[in-house]
Amino acid sequence: MRRAAASLWHLLSSAFGSAVSLARRIRIPRQWLLAYLLLIVVPAGIFLYGYYERSASILKSEVIRTMQQALKQAGSNLSYRLEHIYDISNAAFMNPNLHSYLSVGADDQSMEIQLQVIKDLRFLVDTVQSNSDVFHVRLYVDQSKLYAGEKINFFSLDSLKNKAWYSPVIEANGGIVPIGAYEESFLDIGKARVFSFARMLRDPDRYDKVSGVLMIDVEEKMVADILSALQFAPGTQVYLTDADGTIVYHPDRAIIGTKIAPAILEDMKLSSEGSSTLKIGTEVNDVMYTTLQPTGWRLVAQGTESQLSRRAVELTQRSEWTSLMEYVALFLILPFVLLAIIVRGMNRRVMQVITVIRKEGSEGLIELPPVNGDFHMLERSVDHLILRVRTLVEEKYRAEIHEREAQLQALQAQINPHFLYNTLDTINWIAIGKGATDISQMIDSLAKYFRLSLSKGRSIVSVEDELSLAAVYLKIQQSRFLDAFAFVLDTEPGLGAYQMPKLILQPIVENALLHGILKSKDKRGTITISVREEEGDLIFKVSDDGIGMEEEQARQLLMEEPHEAKPDSTGSSYGLYNVNERIRLYAGNHYGISIASKPGAGTTVTVRLKAEPAKRPL
């Protein structure tokens, strides 16, 4: 303000001196010239200076508002990526085998068991690291584990205890603790800058004992790329802080780990997002911030001049001085006309810029008339900023549209069970009314089949329900193929309450009937379904006395993904490959299907699943 006033005074003094010199040449009385300057030029200069200050203030507030929106959008994008990392960590944390593998027990002395554990944990780690957002996965385990010294994905828990974040991870009691950017050395890839998200794992047998720590690393470049897209003015610092005001990411790595100014920290405690003008030391800083979920970190933009505010002041000031000099040069001819043109022109240009800012996202960018004046750079900068904000908003909008379309398609693909049951019940009563008991029994069995197969949308059902589904299916087929086969259910008591993936037995039973018994010479036979528990596993056996098959053919059924059914309905058309893959995805690679068969001697399909009691009523 003081510098601008001095410049204005210098300009008026120069103009007055030039006017006095010109007045002497054309012999104008000095008193007249002085009165003219005091009545015309000085009021006009004061008016233009006030207008300049008001315009700069309006531009600054509008630009800061737009910058705050851009910062918020970048924070939203970064929050989405971090929430994805949290979801990945939760999915790994919920793995039923992870905690039991990391528990300390007598099995730690068994080389065979530890090798199997390494294999299973390696599969889990590779699955997590296959996600594009995950840079590396680390598991810190008890040093008694054979794989604790692997130092690629598995490390000794003792090596973590000297880290600064070890205590917060333990105190979080299983919660995820985000760790700011730091440099880590990896045996397989060398040094890298990463963020980490760590959580403690407890021994399921001794809950008071820590069995390990799971850390998911994210490359610092992911965060840097998102923040570098913010095209703020040079000198504007964009960084991340935690809830205590410690900087966890900054383009200048020497600043990481330091504290932000107390004035900024106190201001951020008042709300989750906002902008303020604060005096820090001897300088006035414009500070904007927004909160990142779920870490609670703050994304902060700080500068001694907010984006475009300094440029707006300079351009507005330059335009003001140019206009004033032109006015001073011409005030002897058309002072009032020139003043009106300057004010009107400046007002039109300022209002056009503000209108463009306020209409962001509602239409395409408004084409401003090409100019070579002082507002050209300001308009280009504002256009670029708005285009960037709109691009981010449109990307988020398209992502939401795709998500809603997927949800709608999923809802449209579902069958309304009530409508299906009511329709079958109506057909059943019509059959009973007409004395068609065989049709009634068929409809009743079909209704039971759909009820059991739909399972209220659940993918995990009880063993009892799965056996009931297979029995209902066979009863329906008995009505279709009269006196063609019989079936026997042989279940060990107490196993019906265990849980398993649904639709495991029905495809196997269907193959036994269609490809075993009905292809035999006399088209008659017996299907036996037995269930036993052996060493903590459920063993299902589906046996038939049909035509059987060669050992090589049985082996190929579980090794090749099924394609289009062959005319003779053999080979991959059985679909056992899909059932086997579902079991392995659910229970692990050491579970699944095995087939024992010989031509003319029937076939026995054995299903091995982990015996898991239902966690809640199914």
From TrEMBL:
Protein name as it appears in the record: histidine kinase
Membrane topology: Multi-pass membrane protein
Enzymatic class: transferase
UniProt cross-references to InterPro entries, sorted A to Z: Bact_2-comp_sensor_kinase, dCache_1, HATPase_C_sf, HATPase_dom, His_kinase_dom, Sig_transdc_His_kin-like_C, Sig_transdc_His_kin_internal
Domain of life: Bacteria
CDD domains recorded: PDC2_MCP_like (cd12912)
Residues in Histidine kinase domain copies: 505-613
EC number(s) reported in the record: 2.7.13.3
